[in-house]
Amino acid sequence: MTDAKAPKSEQTRTLILETALRLFQERGYDKTTMRAIAQEAGVSTGNAYYYFSSKEHLVQGFYDRIAAEHQAAVRPVLDKETDLQARLAGVLKAWLDIAAPYHEFAAQFFKNAADPESPLSPFSPESEHAREAAIDVHREVLAGSKSKVAPELVDILPELMWLSQMGLVLYWVFDRSDGRERSHRLAERGAHLTTRGVSLARFRVLRPLVLEVHELFTDFLPGMAQTATARKR
Amino acid sequence: MTDAKAPKSEQTRTLILETALRLFQERGYDKTTMRAIAQEAGVSTGNAYYYFSSKEHLVQGFYDRIAAEHQAAVRPVLDKETDLQARLAGVLKAWLDIAAPYHEFAAQFFKNAADPESPLSPFSPESEHAREAAIDVHREVLAGSKSKVAPELVDILPELMWLSQMGLVLYWVFDRSDGRERSHRLAERGAHLTTRGVSLARFRVLRPLVLEVHELFTDFLPGMAQTATARKR
């Protein structure tokens, strides 16, 4: 996947990242050292550290790549559909398709990422870049749909939609069905449920509950408050 | 904790269980064998297998014990309080207190239990006994409160309340705050949120959403459907 037209430094960066992902998959994340990654990629250890200052940074590089591929893959559905449920289901299923090659890696790597205090957690301050890109997709899912949304929920619903995507990711990590068929069905069902929730959030009596759910997540997950603050800047 | 007045077989069972928990904590769950547990407990390996046919069964024994201790510990709050939020917060905080000695064990053991297909998952068919006992507590939380509940939600809400308790357990596993102080605050906040949700579920327009959330969980978590079926028997 190394692009010959990209600048040399970009090519080296991609080479190191792809070598790391292959070694993580072959040897396990915990057992793979930066030195082994550099050696296998044919660069000096110092050079590898220049691009990624730790193994954790390599995983952030992986998250960023998945997020970028996902942003490209959702264009057809987001440019065409105006129905919220179809937009959301399309976005979730595009993610499952992009992540498919990494399923085995994700399962062995999960125990490192499940800890919210780990830099590898999707909720960590270190993951903010990839998280913001992923939440941006959900902002567009909502903004481009014909669903009406209360002004006080416009900023909050995309973060909750992203959280429900994290629920799908957790389910997918352990999904052993052929072609992750069960995860695809969960994506469809989740999109239906979320659309119903968004539709009910029109009712004034329900909005405080939505706000309280969101507040609970931002108060208890380390990186979420930071994301919420970044949104207000 | 071995009770001198209990029958001999009950004493042996308790001895094996407590030895296993200690070894899991000292050596890690994966590295502890049934043979080592038997040896350390001073019984034959055959005898250990008579009481627990696998390591997984030892963990079920652990779950059952926690559930039984919890059922006893919630008596004061459930006999006294009629306010739903106070009942629920009391029940959640009693669980945190009972589980406190096992926090270190829970963290290292988590990766085995997080997989919904594992017999150690709280959602597995194998965990049904402990899960039913835990859901029973939530049935009583709701039934003994002065909150009004729609008839079609009476069976469903306790299972959803138990699911939110599983969310708290997940948070607690990774909670490194002194005395798990953050988990205690999450228990309070979660009880407030759930009470608000139960109160809103009086509105007819919201009930289909609650039913759909519950249906999603029973369709996608292996043991939940079984629990739902058992409830109807």
* Global outline of chain A: elongated
Count of extended strands of chain A: 0
List low-confidence stretches of chain A: none
Mean pLDDT reading of chain A: 90
Give the structural class of chain A.
mainly alpha
Most extensive chain interface and residues per partner: A-B, 28 and 28 residues
Keywords (chains A, B): DNA-binding
GO molecular function, one term (chains A, B): DNA-binding transcription factor activity
InterPro entries (chains A, B): DNA-bd_HTH_TetR-type_CS, Homeodomain-like_sf, HTH-type_TetR-like_transc_reg, HTH_TetR, Tet_transcr_reg_TetR-rel_C_sf, TetR_C_23
Protein name (chains A, B): TetR family transcriptional regulator
Task: Present the secondary structure layout.
The structure is a homodimer of 233-residue chains.
Chain A lengths: L7 H20 L6 H8 L3 H7 L3 H19 L1 H6 L3 H16 L3 H11 L14 H16 L13 H17 L7 H20 L6 H14 L1 H11 L1
Q: What's the short version?
A:
The structure is a homodimer of 233-residue chains. With 233 residues, chain A is an all-alpha fold.
What can you tell me about this protein's structure?
The structure is a homodimer of 233-residue chains. By secondary structure, chain A is an all-alpha fold. Helix content of chain A is 71%, strand content 0%. The first copy, chain A, has helices at 8-27, 34-41, 45-51, 55-73, 75-80, 84-99, 103-113, 128-143, 157-173, 181-200, 207-220, 222-232. In chain A, helix 6 (84-99) runs antiparallel to helix 8 (128-143) and helix 9 (157-173) packs antiparallel against helix 10 (181-200). The first copy, chain A, is elongated, with a radius of gyration of 19 Å. Chain A starts with 7 loop residues before the first helix and ends with a helix. The model of chain A has no long low-confidence stretch (mean pLDDT 90). The interface between A and B is medium-sized, with 28 and 28 residues.
